[in-house]
Amino acid sequence: MLVAAAAVLAALVIFPLASRPAEPPLSGIPAPSGTESPSPTGSPADPTGAPTSGAGGLVWREAAPPDPEPRLEPLMVAAGDGYYLIGGYRHGPDGDDVHLEDGYRFDPAGDSWTSIADLPQVALSHPYRMTADVVGETVFVHFVFEERGELWAYDTAADSWRKIEDTGESEYFASTEDGLVKVLSDEGSSRLLLLTDGDHQWEDLPELPMGRRLFRLGDHQLGYLTLDRVAVLDTTTRSWQTPSEPGDVLNHDAYGVDGAAVFVYPPDSEGELMPNHKYGLDVVTLVDGTWRHIEPMLTDGGLGSQIGPVTGGWIVISGNLFDPHTQEWLSVPAIPGSDYRWAVPTAAGGSQGVLTCFPIRDIDEDEPQHSGECYFLAVP
Fold first, then answer.
1. What is the domain-level CATH number for residue 156?
2. Which residues neighbour 364 within 8 Å (Cβ) at sequence distance 6 or greater?
3. Within a 10 A sphere around the Cβ of 201, how many other Cβ atoms?
4. What is the pTM of this model?
5. What is the dihedral sign for C-alpha 257, 263, 265, 270?
6. What confidence tens digit (pLDDT) does each residue in 242-253 have?
7. For labeling, which of 188, 196, 285, 354 is most exposed (least CB within 10 Å)?
């Protein structure tokens, strides 16, 4: 799964649902003549900020952070059955930023943190950005400062880092369970290369026409939005599928959940201190070749303005959970004591739920401060 900690949150990266196909096709079914807008389900959470549960009985529990002070812009990503909190910085007593090289793994089964290997020594200036893509038990981290970058792989089983290569400003990455995909953009088209886990050789994939960025659609699929159509790259067969019928998604950000494409406008605004994007929010899905405009859930969600983290078959949209296959919403309760007036700077979705750390509790303060807590929302 794709997660990110900085400019975009993809990657960086995540129940008791009816069995569904893992990789449903997106082409071959004409777009419907009208739009379908299933009504949101779930009840608004308690606005007092007391520990409450959402419609599905969701309850936050505190996960004491590995150190007592909040860290800014760390990388947080889920891989396997663990959640990883890596790097970041905090303000020193002299006002200068102190860059953190340590990392930790959170085990939701035992509510425990374990120290992991420090960040590698990259030949880049601070503050560099970090984005992550996960393939199996490997977390690929792309470090970027201005036009230069480095790609490293963190092996979660061996607790070790290895450098893959230096990167340029025109490169970015996406992943499926088949491996890491590198995109080399140029005028008119983009070259795609696949790096299988543990392999140092890049394999050419079919060329990509210029357009929007690739996004992870399923375990073996990458989606690509060109104009108003979605094309799908199967990374197992190394082939493109026939593009979908057109949909009204030109200015939307794209996400994927178990083969379903989800498009959200307005896109997530990093650093914007507001409870969510409920005003002007437009949600469109493409499932089994059928486009649908979805009525958004307009009640505040406990994950603040977050859009994108995926947990099981759910995706976070403006702080609540949405299942594009069933077209259902699930309300996320407020973190205890927050009264919904907070922002979520760091969050990661994984197979067991959503982990968030260091929220800004009161966005109405003159100088909003990050709290030093972490919370875990189990999605059974």
1. 2.130.10.10
2. 341
3. 8
4. 0.82
5. positive
6. 899 999 887 889
7. 188
